[in-house]
Predict the 3D structure of the following.
Amino acid sequence: MKIGACGMLLSTLVRETTILVPVQTPLGKTAETVFGMAQAYADDGTTFFNEGDQVNALAACWYGFGWLHFGWASGFATPPRDDRALCPFDGICEKLPHRLMPGLEEKTGRYAHLLDTARASVACAPEPATPGHDFAGRVLVIVACYNTRGQTCMKKGLHEDALASFSYGHGWLDAGVRAGYLWITGRREIFTV
């Protein structure tokens, strides 16, 4: 998917998402935070893109999609019922100009390390045998899948797809922490709490 299209799609989907839980409740406030973060990163991605910073635009948009998809999966809202809600990983990412490769490769490597560190710094927060614990485990599986996808893409030299995967996975991880499904056991400073 092209970076600009990803940012526009993310913004549209966040705007069209209706929170299902009462906003005055703790769940409602958590939902507002989750979808607010998705919109903030859509806005950041658009700003980066308009300023010609395609590397940071790519990272911001896919990170925002991680927050958005977490919000839908958690039951805070339901996705719109159309094909636009499909995952932005349908196909490969837009190839960036060769002149951006040094920055892209550096950021991709840094985000790979950051996601590994973040994954090692969390645990399921809810008690075992509860629905919350099951969902927290699901979040960790999704993060692991996108970490593996990112590592595979990096080995193939597909740095755009690798950065998108690491950013998306980290969005899920940060959202899981912010929503209380994951407990920080290690490096607190790398999370958005």
